[in-house]
Design a protein that fits this description.
Length: 176
């Protein structure tokens, strides 16, 4: 084998090792668990007409807030959970939240685009049997939640409404 052939084979071998190491690094980047940045994630579950707000905080104290749209957000539930109840893999995050009634809420979050999550929510009773499952999308929200922003913007007009004694269409109308 000539010196030129050895040098060529050595450079091909070195290039192969470098490519292998780079592919390992790229694979390691892909296998990192999903990270849920602090902030508000909101969505609407259409089948139950429920507004869901998932609040992640830097201090590890998080909230799952479900508000019923039909009651104008007056009725709902707030469930607290911590980082210990969040388990993320490279593909999805599983959040287990126990309710005060002894039910278990399991949220399966898969990344949705760059700003949110597709969610499969499964609620099990205290006997372990599934009571309800639903799916929805949560998107990241900068600042306050949509209902809070709406109320700040229109609360004066809403409070000024007086009930009419008629059978016609009545209510608060937004002009576009």
């Amino acid at each position: 084998m000539t010196e030129l052939t050895r040098a060529f084979l050595l450079s091909v071998y070195t290039l192969g090792v470098l490519l292998f190491l780079c592919s390992l690094n790229a694979f390691a980047e892909q296998t990192k668990p999903i990270h849920i940045p602090a902030g508000l994630y909101q969505g609407i579950q259409g089948e139950t007409a429920r507004y869901t707000l998932l609040e992640f905080k830097d201090n590890g104290q998080h909230s799952l807030i479900n508000l019923h749209i039909a009651t104008s957000f007056r009725k709902g539930e707030i469930h607290q959970f911590t980082n210990e109840q969040v388990n993320c893999s490279p593909l999805l995050c599983l959040i287990n939240v126990a309710t005060q009634q002894g039910e278990q809420i399991n949220l399966h979050l898969a990344p949705y685009l760059e700003t949110g999550f597709n969610v499969l929510e499964v609620i099990a009773g205290n006997n372990g049997k599934v009571l309800l499952s639903s799916h929805y999308t949560l998107v990241h929200r900068q600042g306050q939640s949509t209902p809070r922003s709406f109320m700040e913007k229109y609360s004066q007009q809403l409070m000024a409404q007086t009930p009419l004694a008629s059978n016609s269409v009545y209510g608060f109308w937004l002009e576009g």
